[in-house]
Amino acid sequence: MPAHRLSHLPGRAAIPTLPEQTRTSPTPLEAFNRAPAEAAHRTLLTCLGSHHWAQRITAHRPYPTVDALLAASDEASYDLTPGDLVEALAGEPLPALPADAYGAAHTALDAAHTAYESRFGHAFVLYLGDTPPEETLDHLLEAIRSRLTNDPEREREQASEELRRLARRRLVDLLRGAGNGATSPNASTDGT
To answer: Which of 57, 118, 125, 48 is CA-nearest to residue 87?
Structure first.
């Protein structure tokens, strides 16, 4: 664009207007939408270990917003079959204790996990959200002891809800970790 003279500044040329710069890297959501199906599927499995869940979310791309992706995640989570739930639970790590937890705490938690797995046949899963580190142990022990009183159907529902919340948080973290806080201000992560 040629420079032009400003009438009120004789003898001086204006700086030409530059074309709007184009973004060189896609947002995390755009990258997820454009990724090959296999890569998107593998990525989703890091959020929730159910192939059916990951396939369903992959198949419905592209998502116009992060909120739309999170809604699809929730919907797919609500539709987990008992088999999907078993598959997802098999890949879940046990909730971690704070690094400074004392030995008796590890023993108590190990005993509670063993009782839980014996009763329900799968690992205990719990969404800790923004639980302060100093409250993690108490929260874990309270939750596992409380849920040991559930009947198997109620516990399946509870574990499914915990997995949904974990998957949602992991998706948000994945999109944030890929750059610039890609979530919208109203993208709730259920307590996070």
So the answer is: 48
Tokens standing for residue 76: 């797919």
In 38-183, at which residue ranges do the beta strands (DSSP E only) sit?
none
Please report, for residues 76, 150, 192, the alpha-carbon distance to residue 48 in angstroms, rounded to integers and kept in the order given.
Answer: 11, 23, 18
Looking at residue 67, its pLDDT comes to 95
pTM attached to this predicted model: 0.75
Burial of 162 (0-12, 13-18, 19+ CB in 10 A): buried
Distance CA 144, CA 126 (A): 9
Each residue of 13-69: pLDDT tens digit?
Answer: 444 555 555 557 889 999 999 999 999 999 999 999 999 999 999 999 999 999 999
CA distance 28 to 12: 44
